[in-house]
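Problem statement: downstream parser choked on a complex file, so we are re-checking the raw output for the adenosine-5'-triphosphate run. The parser issue turned out to be on our end (a line-ending mismatch), but while we're here, posting the original submission so the record is complete.
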Amino acid sequence: MKPAVLLIEDNEGTRFGFFRYFSKEGYEISEAADLASATHSLASRPFDAIVLDINLPDGNGLDFIETVRGQDPCIPIIVITGSGDVPLAVEAMQRGADNFLSKPVDNAALGAYLRKTLEIGTLKRRLSAQKRLTQKEDIFFGRNRYMQEISHIARAAASGDTPVLITGETGTGKGMLANWIHRHSKRSSQEFVSLNCSSLRGEMLARELFGNARGAFTSADQDRKGLLDIADRGTLFLDEIGDMGMEIQAQLLKVLEEKTYRRLGDVKLYRSDFRPICATHHNIENLVREKLFRQDLMYRINLVVIHLPPLRERLDDLPSLVAYLLRTLGVSEAVLEDDVMQVLMDYPWPGNIRELKNVLERALLLAPRGTRLGREHFSCLIQHPPGRATQESCSPTVQEIQQRHIQQVVEQMNGDLVQAAKSLNISRATLYRRLKQIRDSQP
Ligand SMILES: Nc1ncnc2c1ncn2[C@@H]1O[C@H](COP(=O)(O)OP(=O)(O)OP(=O)(O)O)[C@@H](O)[C@H]1O
């Protein structure tokens, strides 16, 4: 495919010469005589590079560099300045241009610059995509008064070693906060082991937690470590602990009291020094009243309680949270058109921050590269009732089909993850990761 270049230049003669030369060189050239038509062109299709004159009839090209950079940090920009205008060229580079040339422009020199700059642009994009994949997600606390208090308690929890209970609706960031506390605690060099107690029941959950000896049950062909073993000296994050069955609750209480446990089918006593951090979307006290949760276990795990508020109760943080999430997705907040924030403010966010992130990611996928995100990219939030926005408005993607298949196999194996991993021909760790992704993608 030909590289697409947008030439923003008011001089018709220069544009003509440029068009003829670079079309022959194999580029697809679009022309804009002023900033207004350049903005229009950028909104209507993606470009691989921009060649920009500084003095234009309706504004200064220098300011335009920042606008473009806000929408696409990687697109190469080459600036054309008047002859000998070095300070202007320096300013252009400071504002984000990749290269500059003085007038009259030597097309051959510009061609060489363009080739090099396009190569750099491709590399930058690749790096930015790689960074996105490898970057560890960091938590956003925000300036909301209540969240400031939470950040204070979280810091205190990280410097101590007592159990923590995190409550809040789905997608409010309970898992992220648990991980943040671990990473800022003295246990950070050890494992952070996460287990979702609602996805496994009874003996299956016991097997995951305690491990098993060879022959403990039909498919136990070897000794297997449990997560308690792996979490030794680290942190064990028990997500959705409110859904844990009463029998396992009794076993967990014993482990918390004695720090020792037995693998299934084993007589040997194992020791694990793990720090428990638990999370639930339930009100644990109600569960205790309903006799669904042991009171003694509640007192063991709720030494520090952190309640994360739903997103709709911290809307004062929404604009900076959106900017933060967009940055983690590799774009700046300038990518949003002005009236979009009101759409985001008006939506009740039943899936909280997870749903917000999914909605932003989907809007970025829908919009052509280099264009701004308008209301039309958030039509799910306007047209669909809350909670269904990210699921039903689009046909399933390959990833969604894969996720369904994994869920079906886990169900067929009655939740036996060892067998499910074998049947899917993936490792147990990969299966855990995929199951977590499935949970994370649900609002
Ligand atoms: N404070 C935050 N800062 C940045 N991103 C966040 C924050 N909270 C949540 N997210 C985003 O939302 C996603 C879901 O967060 P997380 O899994 O921690 O929520 P949760 O409350 O544990 O949800 P569930 O109850 O469904 O397990 C995260 O992967 C992250 O992308």
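For whoever reads this later: The radius of gyration is 28 Å.
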